[in-house]
Amino acid sequence: MTTLRVGVIGCGSIARKRHLLEYEANENVEIAAVCDLLPERVQETAEQYGAASYTDYEELLKNPDIDAVSVCLPNYLHAPVTIAALNAGKHVLCEKPMATSKEEAEAMNKAAEENGKTLMIAHNQRFVASHQKAKQLIDSGELGKIYSFRTTFGHPGPEQWSIDGRNSWFFDKEKAFIGAMGDLGVHKTDLMRYLLGEITEVGSFIDTSAKENTEVDDNAVCILKTEKGVIGTLAASWSYVSSGDNSTVIYGEKGILRLEDDPNYSLVAQYKTGETVNYELERIQSNEKGGQTQSHVIDHFTDCVLNGKAPLITGEEGMKSLDVILAAIESNESKQIVKVGVSEGKAVTN
């Protein structure tokens, strides 16, 4: 197979501004089909990309010419549609968070294994140039022992970006399951696991304070502890009203790394010796005007499927990042520190 024929299920903003654009730019991909419940939306998208249109994803999955699908749907549909696609013999790139429960995530991974198909979760933070360089510096021992960190992901809210605005499913508890923590926080749990190893304990405050007429969270602050004993904070918010913040700072024995924290440099290394190194790297992708750069997610997924390689963010990796979010939810509800149950299959309170 030299060309990957893909179907995109869901034609909202994430499909239009990420998946479809990046599939179209990849010379090894043919956008074969698109699907959406709204006939006018799917027809417009199908005409734009010269693809077949469907309003029923099950009909799209019956098409034997489609090799892989992107699942770009509300959170509560990630698991059932992904499992159906895997069972239909399709490789799957699923948007984050991969599921709304540990059980759903396990079922998705089981379907991928049983069908011998690739399942990748669309976390993009591992592909950011500053994050990859930071990992190299940390793993090389350049910073010495890592003491602490802070990581933040916030913006004004999905109504600023979603194709449906304030009427978006993001604000519907039954469809979204979780708000800013699932939309933004899960990206940062995946990043911190990538940079510093597994997260083992979580304490959190998760609240709805900025948005009206919704039960989903819009502000969260968590304290995380890694298996190596590093402690730090994670903030996820839909209340950063003027602009977004997608920064991370790593505090080490020999210096500090500032990732996406400086307006001019993607990565700034400040050493104990007084030396500062500024790295001019490809900037992180954002939802703000002019911020749409290559996420590398689509290219990586395509390469893995065509060449039979395991993706960087497998379903198992996606589940581990979800585990941290589930533990944060439990911590907020129980008002206790919660141990992240990676192998036990559930979060267990102390």
Automatic annotation (TrEMBL):
Family annotation (Pfam families): GFO_IDH_MocA, GFO_IDH_MocA_C3
Residue span(s) of domain Gfo/Idh/MocA-like oxidoreductase N-terminal: 4-123
Top-rank lineage group of the source organism: Bacteria
Residues in GFO/IDH/MocA-like oxidoreductase domain copies: 131-257
Protein name as annotated: Gfo/Idh/MocA family oxidoreductase
Organism: Fictibacillus fluitans
